């Protein structure tokens, strides 16, 4: 009987997962799932419908490259790229820009113009400034420089490389044109650990040290079934994200040998699905691996057959827009990979101070990588208690679920259980029954923090007079006045007590379970895809 119920539950879970698009699942992960697209297919209903249903990010496959967007001296042609951006806006998809500096798809007027390196540098500055300015506020991330390295780790010699330091220069120009855009260096065959990825890592490390505006590394991932080296990919994403950089998987496809009608064997499609599954699982281990994009999405339109004769069937949808095994494995990875948490994300909800927790403290926990896509705010029950499970989320302190105030992916608030005792507590986060890793936090008697009027943790405090008016310079408290200080983290002995404040005696009321507005200012280290 018990087994019967269990299998029904598993079936229900599987059905729920099957019903969710990649996009819905990625929203719960707070990550981008993208596809490269060509606007000439937008009029095809199945193309536009699949793209907008399954993906929350779009990138032009060609339209933003130098040749199409800047075809003549002083002549820019934004139409095709603009329609990608418009499609993205219409369907609430983030837009990635690709690419500003590349050796390929550069027009003859540049390559055959007989320009000196200095003149080329001026041309490139104008190009980057014009294109990035045109899309400022609309393109959230740019592949600024594409394929700049050789396989042996040396710099590729290109039309642009005559100027020493051109990669850094390009990043600086792009940053000036749109300081909010995330800037990437993108390459192929540098997904795992090898001479090329070592060179990119070294450059990235140097740029981070010198505050050159580089925010992430793009891993193209044009795979065959034989060139994946996924252990190396894991290590490479680990070392890049350890620099504080984001990683975007930018051009994923897995090409297969196909017959004359473009069909691959079921066995190869299964191998391909396993590669898609493994790639997703590795990325989802790292909170800073924030975007997974396929190069196209349907085998109907893919660069593979034209570029690698005899190969094809590389993408998650077939030529009739039907999901392939690769699609199902992307979906199940997104639905089942464990959420990831870090102890540094646990902060006092009033002061945003971290490092330790106290019993009864209201905390805000930044960073969990899987949760409700929309903010869900708890209601207290008739006895004033907040729930221990909210929108599928639980936060466990030594296994005891905290009462929760609000939850959404990457940010939840709750009350450290009053039973929590030191010296340390093991914290785990759970979403839809899937547990995160465990982190340990010191438990201290008290970590007092006073709420602030704008919930920023700084500025004017949430202190009211007896008429419930904020005590401010204009409404100053006088000696002998009773005031209320909204605070948390006082520990077990400070539920309501008299304390001496600078100007007299005041009532300090610890308000456990106080609902605070969600922070508009997510601390920098917990921002992921935010611009
Ligand atoms: C490819 C496009 O898919 C093709 O349509 C075009 O003819 C050539 O470029 N790495 C990249 C992409 O960074 O820009 C390339 O796109 C594929 C390899």
Kindly report the spatial arrangement of strands forming the biggest sheet: 1-2-3-4-5-6-8-10
Strand percent estimate? 15-25%
Unique ligands: (3S,4R)-3-hydroxy-2-oxopiperidin-4-yl beta-D-xylopyranoside
Give the overall average pLDDT: 90
Measured as a percent range, the helix fraction is 25-40%
Major β-sheet profile: 8 strands, parallel, barrel
Low-confidence stretches: 1-18, 495-521
- What is the number of E strands? 25
Please tell me how large the radius of gyration is: 26 Å
Tally of separate helices: 13
Helix-strand category: alpha/beta
Envelope shape: globular
Q: What is the terminal separation in angstroms?
A: 52 Å
Can you describe this structure in just a few lines?
This protein has 531 residues and is α/β, with parallel strands linked by helices. It has helices at 2-19, 22-29, 45-54, 66-69, 79-90, 108-111, 117-134, 166-177, 195-209, 230-242, 266-284, 304-307, 325-336, and strands spanning 32-37, 57-60, 94-101, 139-146, 182-187, 216-219, 222-223, 246-254, 256-257, 289-294, 311-312, 346-348, 362-366, 376-377, 393-397, 400-401, 403-408, 411-415, 424-431, 434-442, 449-450, 463-465, 483-488, 496-501, 504-510.
Q: What distinguishing features does this structure have?
A:
alpha/beta, 13 helices, 24% strand, binds (3S,4R)-3-hydroxy-2-oxopiperidin-4-yl beta-D-xylopyranoside
